[in-house]
Amino acid sequence: MAKPKAVFRCTACGHQVSKWVGRCPDCGEWGSIEEGAPAAAAAGAASVAPRSPARRITDVDAGTSSATPIGIAEFDRVLGRGIVPGSVVLLAGEPGVGKSTLLLETVKQWAAQGRTALYVTGEESAGQVRLRAERTGAVHENVFLAAETDLATVLGHVDEVRPSLLIVDSVQTLVATGVDGVTGGVTQIRAVTTALVSLAKTSGVAVILVGHVTKDGNVAGPRSLEHLVDVVLAFEGDRHSSLRMVRGVKNRFGPSDEVGCFEQRSDGIHEVSDPSGIFVHEHPTDVAGSVALVAMDGRRAMVGQIQALLNKTEMASPRRAVSGLDAARVAMMLAVAEKHAGISAGRQEVYASTVGGMKVTEPAADLAIFLAIGSSAGDQPISSTTVAIGEVGLAGEIRRVSSTARRVAEAKRLGFRHAIVPAGTDEEMPKGIRITKVAHLADALDAVRPRRLQAVDAPF
Which InterPro entries match (predicted)? Predict the structure, then answer.
């Protein structure tokens, strides 16, 4: 009888190859090909009596899976009103962004409501965690600490403490005894995560796992890690800014496009319920080259500010510098401005940026970028109470964007009195703010041009 031929599968994506290779030809992961036994045929499998009979969906009690608020409004917003008992949450982010600080505040708020939380750290000692907790004011008697890297020992701590919330910092540091592979490797991460997911589902303990990210910003480890957990959150932040964002990537219990805003300070991390004010700089008088916009980050509307500076130069190749914006869209707006508005920047340096470290890549910022360029080129300021929303096409037309009414409502809430929106917008706009609908770039320039210059044939 012929010996079954061994197969080689990628532990990251499951792709199968006929022989071992160093890099998976499907997902491109290095060192993920492992030898395994051929899959057995499923034909003729015998049925097994279920442990519990299937029930009608109407007989299932939905109250057992209702979300429990943590006590941090911005975190609860991203999770979907709170954390569900028995769920597993994966929080991934770059080193030093503040993951551990946020989770210490989480267990403190959780314990303050009379619940028990267990914080397991595999990267620090219990004393180091206690020092950071004292600095951030996250010390509570219902919070238990354990510095462990062995999975079996962690499960033993859970049996003794019986917490309702378990924090594992981080999943890459735990080791499952009896499982091949190095610590933090694909096989170990999968085994550890599978065991913790099984713990959560059988005991009802809510689990939050801290995960590392790769150089590309993706969650480190096998792709199946994100499939095993219920919620995947990305913790983002710029080392040059104190603003931090928790962004939902996957959520089985709520929307997956929510964003929570936090601010990193010396005494810990604090939630920012109204981040729009961070991205707008107040000037005593209106200045040229500055235009307000409203960007959608997930389901949240945030008012920001775009600034542009055009400066004459004798250089053969004028410099183009962009910060916080899509450089390709800024270049496109320069071309459209020259073609359809007569604003030439061929002999000028162009600088475009956002205020406060805000990052905007959506097309709805096109109109604000164009108006900022035109304002700087003509040295004519645009009123600081005006906000511009719209996508600009290559023919100079202004296209409508999503959630225009929500954007205008946010601008009105912050005191803006004039909103320029695309002419094709059919949403009902809020009352109390002047709305100007424009269909072409020329209409947009007329809407912001001072009345004394509207009769002058000039680019601005």
Answer: AAA+_ATPase, DNA_repair_RadA, P-loop_NTPase, RecA_ATP-bd, Ribosomal_Su5_D2-typ_SF, Ribsml_uS5_D2-typ_fold_subgr, Rubredoxin_2
